[in-house]
Structure prediction request, 142 residues.
Amino acid sequence: MVNSTPGARSYSFPKEEHLCRKKLIDELFGRGSSFGLYPLRIVWLPTADATTDAPQVLVSVSKRNFKRAVDRNYFKRLMREAYRLNKYRLLEAPGGHRVGQLAIIYTGKEKKPFTLVEKKLISGLERLLTDATPQARAASPS
Prediction:
């Protein structure tokens, strides 16, 4: 059953929220802004208007740092779970958010526990809320 109570959070991460199209990924990395919160790097592309829709998200782990696919898949699963549980911070922001596309990249060379990855992702989402607003205002004509 779908959440029938008003104000209930949806902790899903459906296919529509996954960033898969190569053209959009190239645009994200070509024109997007980024910042690092070790062991994560966040790359994002702002939208013109504030929205409450979920951004399209890409999750990546470098093959250079983790040779075994098992390890890469583990960290991708870890980051997807951390995002899924905390995306409400972005979606329920007062006045909406301006994040259209988002990439979460694991840049660490060693294995970190889920609690640390989740903590860094939460602080990254909070920073996105503060960073996205001034840049979007500066991009719009006065």
